[in-house]
Amino acid sequence: QSALTQPRSVSGSPGQSVTISCTGTSSDVGGYNYVSWYQQHPGKAPKLIIYDVTKRPSGVPDRFSGSKSGNTASLTISGLQPEDEADYYCCSYAGSYTFEFGGGTKLTVL
Amino acid sequence: EVQLVESGGGLVQPGGSLKLSCAASGFTFSGSAMHWVRQASGKGLEWVGRIRSIANNYATAYAASVKGRFTISRDDSKNMAYLQMNSLKTEDTAVYYCTSSSSGYTSDYWGQGTLVTVSS
């Protein structure tokens, strides 16, 4: 069982927006601004899409955004596109130099 | 272009050992932290451990599930990171990824992964 809780699946139609939550505790998500999000297509390595809660690496579309409220971080994808269909994982620093991943969320673009 | 190439995976018996390597290029390796992350087939990502840069005294940290059995090291002269895995268990079976981290707190770039299978 993963330390961070994510919904197992979410879905949306092209052009819509979806939000994926990542719930932890005050010892991880709520205690640090070191939440990152990764996109993984089938058979591929994960790719960083959000870091430090809200920052986007260069080359990542601004349709992807991150936020945090209390012990829950969120990834919002606006203007859904077919290529956004993938698995998404959150990761948080958990203190004592360790990190935790969420269980992953499968995004289906209908 | 950043490249991370893992090698050394394979089949090993329970209780055995294996050493994974990660060859890095395209970025300032010596200034970056390196993480190892694993993924069992059909499962999610699991953080394994991290080694920081010389500026942070090559500090290491490990997940509770591997602490005392796995050791991460690096050779900045060769742009290489390593994961020494001892006392392997069947539950260690996974694809192992190395990742680079400029800040130490994210996995900026990922390798393609190498498969480790622990089975008798």
Task: Give a verbal description of the structure.
The complex is a heterodimer of chains A (110) and B (120). In chain A, 0% of the residues lie in helices and 44% in strands. With 110 residues, chain A is an all-beta fold. In chain A, strands 1, 3, 4, 7, 8 and 9 form a 6-stranded mixed β-sheet that branches. A 3-stranded antiparallel β-sheet of chain A has the order 2-6-5, with no helix packed on it. Chain A starts with 8 loop residues before the first strand and ends with a strand. The model of chain A has no long low-confidence stretch (mean pLDDT 96). Chain B has no helices and 11 strands. Chain B has strands at 3-7, 10-12, 18-25, 33-39, 45-51, 60-62, 70-75, 80-85, 94-101, 109-110, 114-118.
List keywords for this structure.
heterodimer, A: 110 residues, mainly beta, B: 120 residues, 7-stranded mixed β-sheet
Q: What's a concise summary of this model?
A:
The complex is a heterodimer of chains A (110) and B (120). Chain A is an all-beta fold and 110 residues long.
Topology:
The complex is a heterodimer of chains A (110) and B (120).
Chain A: E1 9-12, E2 18-23, E3 35-40, E4 47-50, E5 64-69, E6 72-77, E7 86-93, E8 99-101, E9 105-109
Parallel strand pairs in A: 1-9
Antiparallel strand pairs in A: 2-6, 3-4, 3-7, 5-6, 7-8, 7-9
Chain B: E1 3-7, E2 10-12, E3 18-25, E4 33-39, E5 45-51, E6 60-62, E7 70-75, E8 80-85, E9 94-101, E10 109-110, E11 114-118
Parallel strand pairs in B: 2-11
Antiparallel strand pairs in B: 1-3, 3-8, 4-5, 4-9, 5-6, 7-8, 9-10, 9-11
